[in-house]
Amino acid sequence: xxxxxxxxxxxxxxxxxxxxxxxxxxxxxxxxxxxxxxxxxxxxxxxxxxxxxxxxxxxxxxxxxxxxxxxxxxxxxxxxxxxxxxxxxxxxxxxxxxxxxxxxxxxxxxxxxxxxxxxxxxxxxxxxxxxxxxxxxxxxxxxxxxxxxxxxxxxxxxxxxxxxxxxxxxxxxxxxxxxxxxxxxxxxxxxxxxxxxxxxxxxxxxxxxxxxxxxxxxxxxxxxxxxxxxxxxxx
Length: 235
What we know:
By secondary structure, this protein is α+β, with helices and mostly antiparallel strands. 27% of the residues lie in helices and 29% in strands. Helix 1 (87-100) packs across helix 2 and helix 2 runs parallel beside helix 4. The N and C termini lie far apart (43 Å).
C-alpha cells in the first residue's frame, strides 16, 4: 500500500484549510452570506418566504425550501464548467434541502417558498460543504427559524491516512471523500455521502474527526453572525 506521508499543501492530517465567513454580503436579499474554505468560495442568498409558484406545489402546512446550487463557468482550476443546471447540481440541490429539513421550522409560512441561491465563485474541493455553510449563515441572516445551526466539512482517506478537508489534488489521488454536515447542539448528522470503500474502524475515526472539525466551522459561523448582530444570533 502507498503511504501518504505529507499533505500536498503542508497541513497536518487533521488540520482545516484557512476559512473565512461573512454575513450580509448581498444588500437586497432577505439574508446572505459568504463562506470561504481554502480556495473554495460560496456565496448564498435567501429570498422569502414569498409566494410559491406554481400553485399546485404549495404546501398548506408550511413553507417549501428550494435550493439552487450553481458553479460558475470559470470557478474551477480545470476545464470550464458548462453553464446551467446539471445532473450534479440537481443532486446537490436535493442533498442540501434534505440537510436543512431537520432544523428548519417553516410552519409559520404555509403556501410559500424560501429560496436559497448558492453560487460557487471559486472551487477547489469541498464545494457542497462550503455551500451548506454559506446557506446556513444566509438562512440565519434572513431570520428563518432554525432549531440548530448546521456546519459541514469533508473528511476522507488518502491512501493510508485519514485527512480532514481534502483539496482537489487529494481528491484526485486514491482517496475516499466523505462530505458530512452536523447540527450544532445535538451533533446529529444531516448529510453523509461516501464515494469509495472504508473499514468500520476508519469510518468511526472519520466521524470523530468530522465532529471536531464541524465544531471549528461552527465557531467561525458564530463569529460571522456576531460581527453583524452583536451576539444576538440563535444557534
